[in-house]
Write the C-alpha cells for this entry.
Amino acid sequence: MKVLIIRYKKSQNIFEGGEQVSHRNLNMLQTIAGDSNVSTYYVHDESKKSTISDYLKGIFLFPSNYFFGLTPGKVQKICEKALEYDMVFIDRSIFGIVAKKLKQNGYAGRIAVFFHNVEPLYFKAKIGNPIASAYVNKCVKANDRYCVKYADKIITLNRRDSDAILCRYGRRADIFAPVTFIDKYKKTEYTTLLTGKKPLCLFLGSYMAPNNQGIEWFFRNVYPHVDVTVKIVGKGMDKLRDHYNIPDNIEIIPNAPDLLPYFEEADIMLLPIFSGSGMKVKTCESLMYGKNIIGTDESFQGYDLDYSRIGGKCNTAEEFIRVLHDFESNPRPRFNTYSRQVFLDNYTESKVLENFKLLFV
C-alpha cells in the first residue's frame, strides 16, 4: 500500500514537541508500508522564508477554513498527487479541509487523520488574545469537523481527546497512539549520583502561553519558598523576560541542539503546566532519560504512572513546595530507574506499531 503523508512543516533544526510525534508517525508508516511506499507533502518548508505576502494570504484564507500555510492551489496539488496513493495520512486535524476536498474530488483511497490535540482547546490555551483566538478557532473547529466527517480512520493520543472529540463532533477515535520515542538512551551504566541538597530543576519547553504561564506561576508561588536552582531550556524562551516575571538569576538557554547534557545534569524535571490538550512530549522524553519528574495533572495526562515513585504530582503551590522540600531533605538517585522502566514498558515506538497497523486493515 502506498501512503502520502501531509505534514505541517519540513524542519531544518530541532524537532519541537508535536513534530517529534509527527516524525514517529512517519517511522511507523514506513515500517509497515516500506520506506519506498511512503511520501511526504510538507505544507511549510523552513528552508524557504515566509514573506509578508505569505502572511497576508494566510490571514485572508482563514475565513475559508484554510489553516495558515494551506492554499486552494496547494490542496488541489495534494488531491492530484493523492491519486497515486492508496492512503492519505493527514498528520494534523487543522488540515481537515484536505480530507473534505479529497472526498469531493472522488478520491477512492483511505483517509486517516492524526489529532495531535483537540485543537480548539490547544489554540485557546496557546493564543492569549481572545479576538485572535476566536478568529483562528473558527477555522480550527471547521477543520476538525471535516476530519470527523470525511476521514475513514481517526487517531488520538489518548482517551481524553477521543472523549472530547465525541462530545464536540459526535465521533470517537478509532485508534489510540500515545506519545512514544525511539530509545535514544541505551547505556551499559547510568549515573549513581544522588540529587543535590539544592536540587537542579530543569524546565523544558518552547515559548508558548501554557509553558510561559506555568513557569511564571512557579516563580511567583513556589520558588520563593524552596531552595532550588532552576534552568529553562527551549526554543524562543529568551523572550520570556520581555513579557513575564522571571527572576534575573535564572539561566535561560533558547537554542540547545543537544538536550542530553541538560537532562543528565538535572536532578528534577519541572512540569508546572495547567492548560492544553493531547499529551506532553517532554514527559515522555523525561521518562526515557530516567528522570525524577514533578508535574501537574495536565503534564501527566495520558500517562500511566505511580506519581510517588516518579517524583510527585502537584497542582497547588503547597504541593510543589512539600515535594521539593522532601527532595531537599532526602536526596535520592538522580537516575530514576522506575521512570526508565515505565518508558521501556509502555512508551517506546514498538509499543504502538500494532496500533498503526489497524490503519491498513
Q: What stands out?
A: The mean pLDDT is 93.
